[in-house]
Amino acid sequence: MYPFISEHLGLTFTEGTQAPVTEDSTDALVVPGSIAVCRLYDRGAAFVYVKAGATLADGNVVALGLSYVDADVDAAQTTSEYVMTGTGDFTADELCGLGSMVVINAGGGLKFGSHFIKKNTANVLTTDRVWGEALTTSSDYIVHTLNRVVKADIDAVGTKHVAGVAIGAITSGKYGWIQISGVHWKVLSVGNTDAAVIGEGMIANTAVGLASGWTNAATSAENVFYSFGMALCSDAEAAGTGEGVPVLITDCAKFWV
User: Fold this and answer.
1) Which of 1, 40, 85, 173 is the most exposed place for a label (fewest CB within 10 A)?
2) Is 89 buried (19+), middle (13-18) or exposed (0-12) by CB count in 10 A?
3) Local structure of residue 50 (DSSP, 8 states)
4) Final residue in a domain of this structure, among 114, 138, 162
């Protein structure tokens, strides 16, 4: 009935309701970034396996883990080398399997693209190819972890885009599934500042991990741009513990495929 889904993958469904449930796993049960597609509530739905960069509750809206590390390069590297040094900037092997990439954003190596990270020690990243321009100790770098998610926040740089919605509790640093398309039965929301309106878009709120409707005063181009789905009921109430609205998720899968 649910193609590509089985309990050993850590994604199950509550009997009688079809409500999806994720395991909260210390170790990855499948490769992070893996996508599962099924039939949910008589419609299609999709889920992606991620590592949580913050503790999530069912219905939290999440964003990609951009700018996980933002620091200085600590050793010069030539254009025949695949490595980059950031002394003490990492935990050994923490970046493996998380869609991790390093980008030089100042100094030597700037504007020569991203490098995927194959492995790392506490001090050194090994990337997928040599540097297009020599790195110096004046170079700065950013590490993005694209299979790691954090709570979305419309006011914070890098977390404005909602990339999925949690379907259960996932502890920070552990692994689980989030939903990226289809009907989510209850997205946690704040309605008294920017109300959800049935049939209109939903965006991340300034309250971290919560959603809201478009700006009450005047819908902006930014509201439309950052919408991740369509409200299936209206909400003009203040946030309450565990309270939210059903949302048809329409614009999250693009961050994963």
Assistant:
1) 1
2) buried
3) E
4) 138
CB 63 within 8 Å of CB 152: yes
Q: Tell me how long the chain is.
A: 257
3-state secondary structure of 92: coil
Please tell me whether residues 227 and 107 are part of one structural domain: no
Residue 223's pLDDT is: 87
Residues 118 and 163 in one domain: no
User: How are beta strands 244-249 and 175-188 bridged, if at all?
Assistant: antiparallel
Q: Smallest Cα–Cα separation from 52: which of 209, 180, 172?
A: 172
204 inside domain: yes
The structure's pTM equals 0.90
pLDDT tens for 33-77 read 999 998 877 788 999 999 999 999 999 999 999 888 999 999 999
pLDDT of residue 17: 65
- Do 42 and 100 share a domain, yes or no? no
- Residues 60 and 156 placed together within one structural domain of the fold: yes
The Cα 24–Cα 119 span in angstroms is 25
